[in-house]
Amino acid sequence: MAGGGVDDGSTYSPLVGGVYVFNLIVGAGALAMPKAFSESGYIGGCILVALLAAFSYLTVTFMIEAMAIANRFRRHEERQRHVQSSEVAPLINETEAANPFEITHRTEMAEMAKMFFSTWGLRFFYACIVIYLYGDLCIYVVAIPKSLQSVACGNLSHQAHSHSHHENHTYAHHHCMGTLDSQQAYYVFLTAFAVVLGPFCFFNAQKTKALQIFTTVMRWSTFIIMIVIALIGIANKKGFNHDDHVPHASDVSTFKATGLPVLFGVSIYSFMCHHSLPSLLTPITRKKTLGTVLSLDFLLCFLFYALLSLTAVFRFQADSLKDLYTLNFTDFPSKFVSYFLGLFPVFTLSANFPIIAITLRNNLRHLFEPPDRPFPAWVTRFVLPIAAIGPPILVGYFTEDVGFLVSFTGSYAGVGIQYVIPALLCYFARQKARRVFETYDNPHASFFSHKGWILFVVVWSVVCIGVVTFNHIYTRS
């Protein structure tokens, strides 16, 4: 298939694959956790985030099993096509005997949906994937230039007092960067963003390896700096200035049920990576390590979230924690550190943007490409990438506030992508495999093989939708 995986011979090690997944999971959303932790209590927060990590990992194992079954069906179809060929058939039989479920072909969610879903299932899938991915890209297109604008135009201190996810575009545009005002600076950064990161979307995920490794180093550096500064403040019981006070340990809330819905709404997609797993996992060389790599990724992400949030709630007063945690460091004595932390969203989202755009591009291909007439190369290489990144970039030029719209479209579509679709893909893939093949010996099968787990995830999805809806109403009331 055009587009990557090991189909074109491009591979990487399990370590690099783990870096890709870690980068995709840990985004700027982590910066909203500390404030939500303070409102829910640190014990309640840790329990809830651990629960979300467990459910997300559960559905990741469903995705891997469905990918393996899809590869099995691809080999079966190849064998059927070449069964009359005495030269090809023995080769395919030999491959099947080794491991017919080996994940060597990148099979996107869209292709698996076509394999295993009914017409209505396909419609549900495409509604979820297109809404979610386009919404994600819109956020990235706006967030990265806004972060650069904040640093270049000196808005960090202002935002520290007035920042809101939906209102940070309302302050007066002032002059900065010579003759440019802050609005014009935003457009300059948006254009630069499109020129620098846009070309990555025309390649495969594995072509972004250098970008992924660079942003991983920057991301770890940012987290470590914030954690170390917070720990030093906790140890010294000293803030950045006379208005910044370190709370006493007894004053930090342990559990507040009323704050859990807010944390739930902030954290529900903190372990989202499912939509890009086919692109990220297929090129990994040693597939036997997938379970270990992903387990460590999820554990590491949880520990980072917990450590970041715990050090935050014990370092800063609950009423002083900002919606965006990096804004709590704007008064740090070192301006270099405060600006470096202000650029955190740039580091995190810059690596994610190409991967999500590539995922959307590949799914658009499967959505519109006729099964019996593949797209010409120029459509695959140029038209589809432009269709993926063009609309979000245009949105960025017309508005700096897409959060309100995406908070609804992304929330509900995200539940489908993260929970419902992986569970249903695995369920219907298992059914079809057991119906078509004599045996079902899948080495990539999920540990959670009982059908009850599928039902459990569906029920959990309904609970998530209910809590997210309550959170939308609660936070805007």
TrEMBL record:
One Pfam family recorded for the sequence: Aa_trans
Supply the alphabetized keyword list: Glycoprotein, Membrane, Transmembrane, Transmembrane helix
Provide the Gene Ontology terms for cellular component: membrane
Which locations, inside or outside the cell, does it occupy? Membrane
Q: How does it sit in the membrane?
A: Multi-pass membrane protein
What's the main place this protein lives?
membrane
Q: Which InterPro entries match?
A: AA_transpt_TM (IPR013057)
The Amino acid transporter transmembrane domain is annotated at 17-461
Report TM segments: 12-30, 42-70, 124-143, 185-205, 217-235, 255-272, 293-316, 336-358, 378-398, 404-428, 453-474
Look up the domain of life of the source: Eukaryota
Q: Enumerate the Gene3D superfamilies for this protein.
A: Amino acid/polyamine transporter I
| Similarity comment | Belongs to the TMEM104 family.
Q: Which PANTHER family match?
A: TRANSMEMBRANE PROTEIN 104, TRANSMEMBRANE PROTEIN 104-RELATED
Q: What is this protein called?
A: Amino acid transporter transmembrane domain-containing protein
Q: What are the leading ranks of the lineage?
A: Eukaryota, Choanoflagellata, Craspedida, Salpingoecidae, Salpingoeca
